[in-house]
Amino acid sequence: MTKNVPSIFIVFFGLHLLLFVASCCWQGGCCRGGTVHYFDVTNTSAQNVERIEGAELTPGSTLPDQSVVTFDQFLIFLELEIEVFSSIQNEPQNHLGFSFINTAYACSPLPIGIQPTEEVDQILVFSNADFTTSTDIRPAGDTLNDLFIIGGFLENPQIFNLEVYNEESEDKETQVEYFIGLENPVLSPQTHQFTVHYYLTNGEFYAATTESVEITP
Fold first, then answer.
1. What is the CATH topology of the domain spanning 38-84+115-216?
2. Taking the domains of the chain in order of start, what are their residue ranges?
3. Neighbouring C-alpha atoms within 13 Å toward the C-beta of 214
4. pLDDT in tens, 126-181
5. Quick one: residue 8, left, alpha or beta (phi over 0 = left, psi -120 to 50 = alpha)?
């Protein structure tokens, strides 16, 4: 019996090692080979936030409902709700023609029907009230894109007029967070509740509405 102990121990240890490796890769902790990540937009949310003074589109704290802010201290924070998926590329086989980490343990494989990439098409801003500018009055429900600028969290953030951003497809970046601010002062104090429409190139559409805010010159 004592002569069989080493072989039994080796088999027992080997089985536990394989189970550990399989479990690890199933949870996404140690998968090997190239991992490609994808995301699927499932919803959006929008809230009013403070714009840090002297900064381009740098957000501060969240503004409570019915806050009063000047135009240059106001931002709309548009946030995407996403699900992240990953796909594991095939691992090269060793010289014996097999791999200990099989692609059957792929981390969160891409579900059927999910597009490999989702790209932003257009972002539109509306208000529930007339918007008064220095030159005209925009009726409630009209798009206000030309009055806003947009940016996001990037290593080298770029700021665009929202109308120009929608027209220039090569400048678009699909991001999880966007910040949208007014480009010029308002003519007079006015209260708005903004709705942001978010369109993807695959036809998906999401809408989110902010709390009420009073904007002053």
1. Immunoglobulin-like (2.60.40)
2. 2-36+87-105, 38-84+115-216
3. 6
4. 999 999 988 889 999 999 999 999 987 655 567 889 999 998 866 576 788 999 99
5. alpha
